[in-house]
Amino acid sequence: MAGLKEFSNQPAAFRAGARSAWTSVFALVLAGTYVGLGALAHDFGFSPWWLAASTIVVWAAPAQVILLSTLANGSTLIEAAIAVTLSAIRLFPMVVALLPLLRGATKNRRALWLPTHFTAISMWVESLRLLPGIALPFRIAFCNGLGLAYMAVAFAFGFVGFYLAAGLPVLLAAALLFLTPMSFITSTARNSRAVSDKVAFVAGIVLGPLLAWYQVGLDLMWTGIMGGALAYGAHRLRRVAMETAP
Amino acid sequence: MSGVFGESLREFWPFVVLMLVGFLPNEIWRVLGLVLAHGLDEESEMVVVARAVATALITGVVAKLIVFSTGALGAMPFSLRVGAALGGFLAFVLAKRSVFAGVATGEALLLIGGYFASF
Q: In 3D, which of B44, B21, B49 has the Cα closest to residue A96?
């Protein structure tokens, strides 16, 4: 196919992926997010290496926030696992949307494991945007470069946040800890375009603290399920309204 | 449990927890995507629900971080934490959904308010 970007070899494609990651706005967003997560890990008494390990194996900032706060709150391991897995269902359709761009690049199924693991919002958005312009044989290497570069940013800035929180006076440490809620509220609102997402956004903000206040068991699980159910109800109502409209 | 084995177990236990409670419940959905990646409509009902559940969970958990803050953030008054978050969100909306504007405003409000609250 004409017009698709070719590379001289696979490492060159990998490096191009890493370069495009480091020059995208997402690198900055990730740095800020993981400074906040580092501060949170310090506040909750986790080791910076534990956070770094979670960045590598979990590689989903929302799941990591949930993991840190549920484990720190003394929730049971089952509660933490349920909340994490509910937050991770969204990864399923993301992988499903990404793979058609990579399939055909290789006959080796195992080569798809790494891009699958790297799938998280930043890498996914950039992959869907950039991969269609890249020649098929180089896409997996490019994708891995992209994913690994984003992960390296997150890994490094988790430590930055941890040690900043450890050394800063209370007011500045508070500002670092405020980074996580403030950035997740605004970035989630930005991604909430459909009515169902907006309903879920508000439901989460109201139900999360409310269920915790009344000490409802598995409060986060119920926040996710009730918020999801309300949002789905709104989605169906809207569709019915649109279908019956003249 | 004692001796060398007990020591190393204590040291590695947090990482075992991470794998069981963090890695596995999260990664399973990526692996399912890889295994079952055929013919899922992007606009399907399942995608709508998955996104909504994830949205409610993350806003729920960060709202809890603001309402029931611990550590340094918990040292700030409750009204300041909620006010700074609302102000940041308002700035986000006014600045055409700019995440940067929202975060910068929220942080500035918290810092200014926290500075004066400490007198």
A: B44
